[in-house]
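[step 3/7] inverse_fold.run input=structure_tokens len=471
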């Protein structure tokens, strides 16, 4: 058995053994009732599938196992599948299609190339160009996957045109900057990445948190730390991976000749529809139309204009991801009706008491802990967030710490990439670049710079949160 398989089946085996022990022995009585302990065991089996993917099971199969177990325990189906009735899932599905049409029509690639063509052949200019590209594409689609799919081939092409040696600092710098600017800037606003609908859905599943996250509340709590993180990362990454190779003017000239064709009708429709969606998000207080309704209207518009075809409804997005997230969003209500929320709160709330009195200590300690958890929870951190979020009202009541503070902590840790396996988009980028990609050592260095950037950004975020009454 290979080392990878040993890790996969060994890790899942640990979760499975713990689940069986809990189900058979019910060690947490009387604090947790029998149903709650059975659900805890089923959850551990599900988490093992989500994190380790044994037998190459898709994420949706973990959700299926969870649903089967809960149905056997006669939990109300309206609770089990509550995640699929949330508005967040109906924001997520159109959002995934937004990314698909941006890729399909070629508009995303056109935008990225147009921005690059504005700059002179210098590494500093190229880095700034990638930041602008990341922001521009984040306005048009929350799908990080699509942004990576658009940006990374262009980054690899740039490296080839510049004749940058594989494994060189220049090669890694351009590709890592492209990858991280696809990942980070959009996290600063609710519709800029999939973190938005996912975390909003997890919050809305908890009655005390329902409606807390809006475009405005997210913007006020998250924008500053995420954009500071991005700025420090691109500057710090340039310092750490400062290349000695010069960029070729001939290569820049070749790049500027690319894609001179006029906009197609589908590109025009796509651009107008996506910009309109973003404007409606920004002006929600004026028109009052809920964000999910805006997204669904836009999805209808894509089909009505022919940008999307009927056959693409089943193949255009990852329904495996939708099912996975839908079941994860259901955990808040499942925990509530089975007593797990109260039980977990009884563990976590006292455990953080030593640090909760100091806002600085609390934020930094919890951020570091969630970063460490990310080494294990590679399923986008969604399982960890699903377990922790129902406890946030109790933490808020006990210590006056707003649940909004946790959003930045979730996103910072969720985007981490010390090692490629931690971040699905890093793996995707490597798959696109193949042998022309960055080196593992350069990724690790850039990942450390990202962690430091997060720690520095929190120096600005904590005073903001204190002044805003969030801490």
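[step 3/7] decode complete -> sequence:
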């Amino acid at each position: 058995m290979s080392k990878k398989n040993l890790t996969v089946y060994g890790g899942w085996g640990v979760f499975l053994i713990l689940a069986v022990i809990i189900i058979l022995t019910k060690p947490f009585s009387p604090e947790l009732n029998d149903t709650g302990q059975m659900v805890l065991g089923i959850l551990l089996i599900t988490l093992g599938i989500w994190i380790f993917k044994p037998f190459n099971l898709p994420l949706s199969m973990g959700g299926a196992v969870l649903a089967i177990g809960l149905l056997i325990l006669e939990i109300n189906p309206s609770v089990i599948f509550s995640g699929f009735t949330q508005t967040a899932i109906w924001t997520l599905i159109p959002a995934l299609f937004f990314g698909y049409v941006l890729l399909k029509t070629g508009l995303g690639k056109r935008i990225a190339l147009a921005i690059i063509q504005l700059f002179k052949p210098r590494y500093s200019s190229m880095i700034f160009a990638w930041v602008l590209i990341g922001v521009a594409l984040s306005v048009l689609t929350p799908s990080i996957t699509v942004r990576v799919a658009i940006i990374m081939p262009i980054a690899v092409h740039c490296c080839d045109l510049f004749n940058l040696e594989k494994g060189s600092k220049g090669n890694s710098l351009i590709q890592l900057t492209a990858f991280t600017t696809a990942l980070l800037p959009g996290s600063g606003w609710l519709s800029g990445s999939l973190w938005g609908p996912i975390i909003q859905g997890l919050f809305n599943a908890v009655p005390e948190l329902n409606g807390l996250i809006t475009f405005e509340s997210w913007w006020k709590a998250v924008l500053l730390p995420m954009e500071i993180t991005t700025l420090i990362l691109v500057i710090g990454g340039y310092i750490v991976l400062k290349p000695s190779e010069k960029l070729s003017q001939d290569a820049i000239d070749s790049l500027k000749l690319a894609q001179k064709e006029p906009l197609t009708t589908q590109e025009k429709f796509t651009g107008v529809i996506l910009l309109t969606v973003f404007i409606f998000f920004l002006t929600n207080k004026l028109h009052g139309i809920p964000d999910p309704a805006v997204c669904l209207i836009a999805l209808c518009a894509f089909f009505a204009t022919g940008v999307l075809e009927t056959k693409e409804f089943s193949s255009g997005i990852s329904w495996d991801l939708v099912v996975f997230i839908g079941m994860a969003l259901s955990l808040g209500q499942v925990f509530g009706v089975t007593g797990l929320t109260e039980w977990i709160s009884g563990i976590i709330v006292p455990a953080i008491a030593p640090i909760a009195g100091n806002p600085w200590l609390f934020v930094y300690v919890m951020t570091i802990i969630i970063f460490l958890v990310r080494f294990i929870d590679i399923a986008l951190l969604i399982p960890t967030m699903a377990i922790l979020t129902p406890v946030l009202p109790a933490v808020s009541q006990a210590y006056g710490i707003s649940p909004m503070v946790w959003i930045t902590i979730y996103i910072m840790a969720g985007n981490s990439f010390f090692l490629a396996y931690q971040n699905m988009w890093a793996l995707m980028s490597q798959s696109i670049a193949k042998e022309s990609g960055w080196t593992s050592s350069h990724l690790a260095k850039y990942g450390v710079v990202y962690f430091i950037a997060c720690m520095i950004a929190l120096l600005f975020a904590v005073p903001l949160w204190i002044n805003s009454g969030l801490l």
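[step 4/7] annotate
The first helix runs from residue 3 to 25.
The mean pLDDT is 88.
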